[in-house]
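Aim 2 progress update. The chain analyzed this quarter is reproduced below.
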Amino acid sequence: MSKSLQEQLLGVGLANKKQAKKISQAKHKKRKARGKKPPPPDAIKEKILQEAAQKARRDRELNREREELAASRAQRSQISQLIDTHAVERKDAEIVHRFVYDGKVKQIYVLKEQQAQLAAGKLRIVFDRRNFHLVDPSGADKIALRDPSAVVPLPETANETQDDDYAGYEVPDDLMW
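Predicted structure tokens:
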């Protein structure tokens, strides 16, 4: 069997092993590149358009989330400013006023006159993500426009519900207590 030209050149000493290896790698790359066909141009354009559309959708979604976050922060800031301007001072308050907020019984310390005003609906309780505050009704209405869950609802009076439950019954005249 005859030797390849590469082996013959190595044997004579006209080429070294590095050059032979370099030439064989180049031949291998040419054969490998010849076997691959480039994708048709329409497929490339379609892929690029799809990737651009996906990127645009992701960008729109991220922008929407950022805008919602900014709006939420602005709303919280407005609520805290409204609380600062409409808050009623509770310094030296000693009376505990209990109320229901978010399905749980909460408490706030108030003065005696403030407790009476709360019962009459002349003061309202609001929540600002940290604490409960007393505010006047106009401030509570402004806060409720921005976040209705921040304002503690007024309690129903027991007399109204009791009257409705027993409206069909008459109290006998001869009843002795």
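The helical segments are 5-12, 17-35, 41-86, 112-120, 137-146, 158-165. The longest strand covers residues 95-101. These observations will guide the mutagenesis experiments scheduled for the next reporting period.
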